[in-house]
């Protein structure tokens, strides 16, 4: 109860301080080009912000984590908005529960934070397809994403209008905390360089935002990025980490914005990790040094990310640099606030630097969140995926097709798709089984018995098989995340080419989708007698201690 009362007290404080500023001056936020700074209600201002994506943090923790961000001395929070989750199918918008963006922004305001909004439509963000809805690939398979492609633009415009209208009252000039709205994301890194597209996005957003917030772009700190990233009439900023010289980076911004505040929109406080890599780390001393150098130059800074969180479900993305590189479910990122929500040494080191430039709150005690001791959680097999009963409960209606269909062609976004065919002719033993376009990882089985793995990231696209006429060949394909960065973002999943055996194209497939977004129909009784081979469901249980539940109720 003590904590609860304390938080009501904070509310009333914030309400009165907002009331006072309303009386003193009309709410306004703008760029003071003359003095290379922002003006907040007419007063010189700069932000020290941190990225925290609401879709990577359970709603129950939003307030707590925002408060920790504020307590480090930050005065703003930055979040991407993920189109693919907010419009799961064309024209069907979702903004409630865990996707209640307005509530997140409202909590930020209550916790005394301004907001930098990054609505996309493309966000990269190490998310499946860079946050674009995969159904775009179904609507028009050769869609030219992130350009003035008529189909792409039609959907992007409808979404942006919907989204920006829904947060219009939360723009700073309209009484809310949103001071900055980003257009697209690092567009200068993309192959298209379509200025008609970026100008159109600007006009859509500007039409709703007006002068109630500042529009900006961000790009890599070099003229090769800014050349196509800069949009006429939108403030250009740069992003860079500890490995870059601060003055060189800001010189790049100055080539496109000769006057106005210096801004690093993505100061990398950590780094992302791909499957199979060691966890990436960014050294705290280097962060402290670079941060101090930027703040000494009066720059505004946004940490990317201040709290990473988790890529829940199947929503992690992938990179493609010489090979396909899927990203982890964890998005800890070596960020100042850990994935578990705890302040790290990096957090306190950053707070100390910020304190040299901005006032720190004096009443906040930041402690690690309570933890449970779950000991070892044992997993037991409960059911094989290929079991007829499980197929009926969790699989979609099987489809017949002469040649393989992609996930997108069968209207499935994530999870697994099973491709099965009966060999209708005889082949030499062994014969080479080959799928040049395997997206992304497949278990190959013969008559329900696993024989090996094909993998896009490992570049294993063929294997020898011993088969005869009448053998059932099965390929269970996992989508490991659509590419989120670069020129290959039209990243279809499943078998994206034919499969061949001994050089002959295999035909007459039965295709069963397992989206696995809802496994509540899976029966949950352990079956200790089940000796599994091949894909199966496992179950383990643990109990959440009551101290964790009661901790959450306070927020
Ligand atoms: C923009 O559109 C105009 C007219 O539709 C066209 O002439 C021009 O080439 C386009 N520019 C780009 C960069 O595509
Ligand atoms: C985008 O392209 C369409 C034709 O596809 C054209 O009518 C429209 O003017 C273009 N938009 C801009 C802003 O150039
Ligand atoms: C930073 O801003 C202050 C106050 O406006 C000014 O006196 C100082 O010269 C600025 N420093 C730099 C490096 O621009
Ligand atoms: C967690 O519980 C296990 C088993 O009860 C015990 O052995 C272990 O010491 C505990 N760990 C901590 C950190 O309390
Ligand atoms: C599969 O093979 C058939 C017959 O050769 C061909 O028509 C079809 O285009 C191929 N599909 C793909 C995705 O390559
Ligand atoms: C497991 O096998 C034993 C011995 O055959 C049998 O008694 C028992 O009922 C089986 N349990 C299940 C859950 O099938």
UniProtKB/TrEMBL annotation:
Residues 1-19 form the signal peptide. This is Uncharacterized protein. GO terms for biological process: carbohydrate metabolic process. The active site is at 186 (proton donor), 266 (nucleophile). GO terms for molecular function: beta-galactosidase activity. Transmembrane segments: none annotated. Gene3D superfamilies: Galactose-binding domain-like, Glycosidases. It comes from Cryptotermes secundus. Keywords: Glycoprotein, Glycosidase, Hydrolase, Signal. Residues 37-356 form the Glycoside hydrolase 35 catalytic domain. Pfam families: BetaGal_ABD_1 (PF21317), Glyco_hydro_35 (PF01301).
